[in-house]
Amino acid sequence: MLKLLTASQTKEADHYTVINEPIRSSELMERASKAFVKIFIEKLPDRKKQILIFCGKGNNGGDGLAIARMLIDESYSQIKVFIADISDKSSEDFELNLERLQQKDTSIFYFKSAEEIEYQECDILIDALFGSGLNKPLEKEWEKVVKKINQFSGYKVSVDVPTGMPCEGELFNDVIIKSDWTVTFQRPKLNFLLPISSPYIKEWKVVNIGLDENYIQSTSSPYYWFWKGDIQHYIKARQPFEHKGMLGHALIIAGDDETMGAALIASEACVKCGAGLTSSMIPESGLKALNVRIPEAMFTNRATLDDLDWEKFKVVGIGPGLGNNENSLQILKTVLNNYKKPMVIDADAINMIGENQELLKLVPENSVFTPHMKEFDRLFGTHNSWWERIEKALKKAVEYKVYIVLKNRYTMIFTPEGICYFNSTGSPAMASGGMGDALTGIITSMISQGYPIEKAVQLAVFTHGFAGEQLAQKMYVVPATNLIKSLPYVMRELLAGK
């Protein structure tokens, strides 16, 4: 589990590494530039491409100068370097790398204003004007420079962070380099994981520059990044004498006459992920479809709701396609008044709780809410930004002692302990109806099988995204039904990789 850092914490990690490795700051810059160049060559190996490198006079500019020198040493022959001489100040490491670059046969141009930058055709443009240290909006001449560079043709590559973008928090403004590819150091920046980065970063890649990992992991931060290696530690192999009674009985309460598909998707995902038993409480109008589509699932009649033996269910998943009407609200109230173990609450169940806030007090501890952005706002109020949602989710997860799965490209999991986990898997190809219903079924299944709630949620979210990623390599769009069919194979692959 990788801890994510703010810009100031990253600077402290730099300083700690320099002091304790020990290593000079210029040597750390050299290491970072080598890591950038290595991955650059792998992706863009054509040495004859025309490359423009724009450098500021701080350490990000120093990176740019070192990168220019190294690319020349790697036989990239069409390189021009542009130095923004807008500020009188420059860093020591910038000056050192400028001196080193001047010993090479390359073109270096200085400019004090955007007007001095002539538009040029290029294949690749490397942005090394400002890095992670930027703490205020770019204005005046800098604003003009960024807007001018954004008009340049060519594939734009940013060093560490696109110029103008803060690593975390609200964007200052839209004066930001529009990067096709950002090569960032040691960790993804928090803003890379949010939709606010979308206009400015099409793709990003993390390279390790050797910062002290023990120091980073000891840093106080609520943000973590989990990936395949973490999940493979969680997943359990089936034991020789395990049977369906030992792997939990899950109850899915979902569906309405016109939204039966959501209930079937959630139920099938629960079955395919390995719940010992899955019961589906759906309208009778969906019984034939349930028997045909998912013969492994059992039908539970809603007429028996008041007399249900709640204790036999390890977990209840409720909400997909349930509808938002008086009958649905009564079902939800009955469940909340009778079931006291963790629940998975999605879709219409979230919307009804949002409209009836008193129901929040009835939600059992360690339950899991799975909202998308609009459902989150219906539940906890309108928010003007993703950072407002993150702050609210951290607060509400602790307040109500629940897990909040805020669905997105990099889905966030907020815990009762005030932690935010970012999931590393997923694909835009998964942007289709039913994906959230599938996730509800997967989470319900994992809890049913006895995984601790936090691990169950992480395992479910990762597996959901991982299955989508794999299918996206072969499919333009990944329908939920295709993803569900792949789940047993994906889980087997994760288990085999332990």
UniProtKB/TrEMBL annotation:
The keyword Signal does not apply. The keyword ATP-binding applies. Pfam families: Carb_kinase, YjeF_N. CDD domains: YXKO-related (cd01171). Keywords: ATP-binding, Isomerase, Lyase, Metal-binding, Multifunctional enzyme, NAD, NADP, Nucleotide-binding, Potassium. K(+) binds at residues 60, 127, 163. Its cofactor is K(+); Mg(2+). One of its GO terms (biological process) is nicotinamide nucleotide metabolic process. Gene3D superfamilies: 3.40.1190.20, YjeF N-terminal domain. (6S)-NADPHX binds at residues 59-63, 131-137, 160, 262, 321, 372, 437. AMP binds at residues 407-411, 436. Belongs to the NnrD/CARKD family. Belongs to the NnrE/AIBP family. Bifunctional enzyme that catalyzes the epimerization of the S- and R-forms of NAD(P)HX and the dehydration of the S-form of NAD(P)HX at the expense of ADP, which is converted to AMP. This allows the repair of both epimers of NAD(P)HX, a damaged form of NAD(P)H that is a result of enzymatic or heat-dependent hydration. Catalyzes the epimerization of the S- and R-forms of NAD(P)HX, a damaged form of NAD(P)H that is a result of enzymatic or heat-dependent hydration. This is a prerequisite for the S-specific NAD(P)H-hydrate dehydratase to allow the repair of both epimers of NAD(P)HX. This is Bifunctional NAD(P)H-hydrate repair enzyme. It comes from Pedobacter psychrophilus.
